Amino acid sequence: MTAHTTSPRPSLRLAALTHRWPSVVGFVAAVGIFLAGADRVSVALVVAIAATCYVAAAAFSLPSMAWAWIPLSFVAVFAGALVELDPLVATAVAAAVLVVVGLLRGAARPALTLEVAGLLIYGAIAVSALLLAPTAGLVLVALTLVAHGVWDLWHLRRHRDLVSPSLAEACVALDVPLGLAVLVAVLV
């Protein structure tokens, strides 16, 4: 009698995939953004929105608010476009409003300070990338997105109380593959 090796039942594979839905969502978003023609402006906007999601969670002291901020950030960008405001500027204005809301609500200062610091660092680098030559700027903003993936992973491992773990996981699966794909596309 020979040993018979079978693959896992389809229901087990589906259950494993269902458990990793944030990674699937993030990766699908990364592929979609890349295929849509990721340029330095769109990648910088991804960085800005990702960092602002964390500020939203801290401002409301509600980890799941990071997920809610994703569609709200698109509303802010769309509203900004109606008054001819650059998408990055609209995102910055929305982030400033989030900080004020957080301060008025009495959000935990250490959490809000941490997330605002992250936003300022990642945002400043992303905006700086727009001031460089197109290729150099795209490389810098892609590296910034990969670095934000490390920030996501750090939150996923250490600060599950600040940001929804599912959001941090989705962001890792968005930021790192998108940033690396852009780097490969630029450098090859």
UniProtKB/TrEMBL annotation:
Keywords (A to Z) from UniProt: Membrane, Transmembrane, Transmembrane helix
TM regions (residue ranges): 20-36, 43-60, 88-108, 120-146, 167-187
Name this protein carries in UniProt: Uncharacterized protein
Organism of origin: Pseudonocardia charpentierae
